[in-house]
Amino acid sequence: MAASPSGVPGDEKEALAQLARAERELADRRAEGLVEAPGELARLLASVAAAGAARAYLLTKA
Amino acid sequence: MSEGETAAAKDRELRALQAALAAEHAAVYGYGVVGGRIGKERRGEVRAAYDAHRARRDVLVRQVRDAGATPVAAAAGYALPFAVPDAAAAVRLAAELEDRVAGIYADLVRDSTGERRRAAAEALREAAVRSVRWSGKSVAFPGLAERSGAGTTPGAAAPAR
Q: What is the CATH number of domain B3-159?
């Protein structure tokens, strides 16, 4: 299946998997960034990272 | 940082660790209730969550000891936030337990540093994922009561008095 010009795979399942991977990678980067952040910002980053991981789960479940 | 500020930060971190430990004790108890009411098809998920909370609890016990304090003990029983007569209520309770734990770990992220902060963020993430597994609904800011429309229930699974 050819990818569209936007880089999103034409196959829906593959597109969702790619989106979920991107969400997880972003969550991982935020988890790294929060270690050195001031307290309240770290708390917010951790929450946003957790939300991303939860969204990734919802994107890939059955 | 002055000596006084360092001591205050350590004290805050220890209090947050103890709060997280108390929340994990409550979650372990709560999942015992969930396991007794939930349908057969989801027992594997309950078991996995139960084991995960026990593992986090044990890590927190070590961290509190390393900080030179006595880890808080589990209560003999905990008041549940609502009656759990059936499988549907058990699923709601499981989601509630995760939301409660998420809030406590968000605070621990704020009040800790280094590896302990990293572990707290990971625990928050796991709780948020388990919460949506149970509820099917995601929230924008897991663990942040002040940014949640409905608000998490701070009294969820409070120790019975």
A: 1.20.1260.10
Predicted confidence band of residue B151 (pLDDT cuts 50, 70, 90): very low
* CA–CA dist B110, B130 (Å, integer): 22
Q: Which residues 107-136 of chain B have a CB within 8 Å of chain A?
A: 107, 109-111, 114, 117-118, 120-122, 124-125, 127-129, 131-133, 136
pTM of the shown model: 0.89
Q: Do A51 and B128 touch (CB under 8 A)?
A: yes
| DSSP letters spanning B36-82 | HHS-GGGHHHHHHHHHHHHHHHHHHHHHHHHTTSPPPPPPS-EE-SS
The predicted-structure confidence for B81-138, as pLDDT tens digits, reads as follows 999 999 999 999 999 999 999 999 999 999 999 999 999 999 999 999 999 999 998 8
DSSP string, A33-56: HGGGS-HHHHHHHHHHHHHHHHHH
- How is residue B121 written in tokens? 């963020």
* Cα gap B140→A52, rounded to integer Å: 9
Question: Chain B contact for A54, CB < 8 A?
Answer: yes
Domain ranges of chain B: 3-159
Q: State the average pLDDT over residues B44-71.
A: 97
The continuous run of DSSP H or E covering A10 comes out as none
Burial B36-65 (b: 16+ CB within 10 A, else e): ebbeeebeebbeebbebbeebbebbbebbe
Query: A10 to chain B, minimum CA–CA distance in Å?
Result: 26
